[in-house]
Design a protein that fits this description.
There is one protein chain. This protein is of the alpha/beta class. It has one domain: Metalloproteases ("zincins"), catalytic domain (Collagenase (Catalytic Domain)), CATH 3.40.390. The chain is 42% helix and 20% strand. The chain is built from five helices and four strands. The protein has a four-stranded mixed β-sheet with strand order 1-2-4-3, with helices on both faces. Helix 1 links the parallel strand 1 and strand 2. Helix 1 crosses helix 4 and helix 3 packs across helix 4. The longest helix has 17 residues. The mean pLDDT is 91. Single strand-specific metallo-endoribonuclease involved in late-stage 70S ribosome quality control and in maturation of the 3' terminus of the 16S rRNA. Pfam families: YbeY. Keywords: Cytoplasm, Endonuclease, Hydrolase, Metal-binding, Nuclease, Ribosome biogenesis, rRNA processing, Zinc.
C-alpha cells in the first residue's frame, strides 16, 4: 500500500512569506516514516494571540510558541489501518522572529518546524537526551534531503 497524505491547510494570520499548501505537503510527506501508510493532517498557521491561547490552554505555558502538535491517537480505539490523525499549529510571528534571529531563510525554518511536528505526530519526542538525539538526526536527514541546511548546525563553531 502506498503512503498517502491528506493535508488541510488553514491560514489565520495576515503574515507574509508563508509556505503554500504544495510546499507544506511536500515537507509533511517527506517526514512520514515508512510505517505510516495513511495520514490526515491539518496545518493551521496562526497569529501570536491564537498561538499563545493554544499553548496556554493545552500546555499550561502562557506564551506563543513556534509549533504545537495535537495527535488524536490517544483518543481513538486501536483499529488496524486507522490513518495517522493530527493537527499542527505554526505561529507565524514566532517562526519569523526565530528565523531572523537564527539567520535562517524563513522557508527553511518553516520546513524544519513542520518536519519536527510531523515527527511528534508519529510518536517521536525529545524529553530526554537519547530521544532528542534520535529525533534531531531524523529532522536533519529529512530537512537536508529537502534541500535546506542542517537546522541544528551552529555556524559559530569552527
Amino acid at each position: 500500500m502506498s503512503r498517502k497524505l491528506k493535508l488541510a491547510v488553514q491560514v489565520e494570520t495576515a503574515a507574509t512569506g508563508l509556505p503554500g499548501k504544495t510546499q507544506l505537503k511536500q515537507w509533511a510527506e517527506a517526514a512520514l516514516q515508512a510505517k505510516v501508510k495513511q495520514a490526515e493532517v491539518t496545518v493551521r498557521i496562526v497569529d501570536a494571540e491564537e498561538g499563545r491561547v493554544l499553548n496556554r490552554d493545552y500546555r499550561g505555558k502562557d506564551y506563543a510558541t513556534n509549533v504545537l502538535t495535537f495527535t488524536f491517537e490517544d483518543d481513538l480505539p486501536d483499529i488496524p489501518g486507522l490513518p495517522l490523525l493530527g493537527d499542527l499549529v505554526l505561529c507565524a510571528p514566532v517562526v519569523a522572529a526565530e528565523a531572523e534571529a537564527q539567520g535562517k531563510p524563513l522557508a527553511a525554518h518553516y520546513c524544519h518546524l513542520l518536519v519536527h511536528g510531523m515527527l511528534h505526530l508519529q510518536g517521536y519526542d525529545h524529553l530526554d537526551d537519547a530521544e532528542a538525539e534520535v529525533m534531531e538526526a531524523l529532522e536533519t536527514q529529512i530537512v537536508t534531503t529537502l534541500g535546506y541546511d542542517d537546522p541544528y548546525r551552529d555556524d559559530e563553531t569552527p
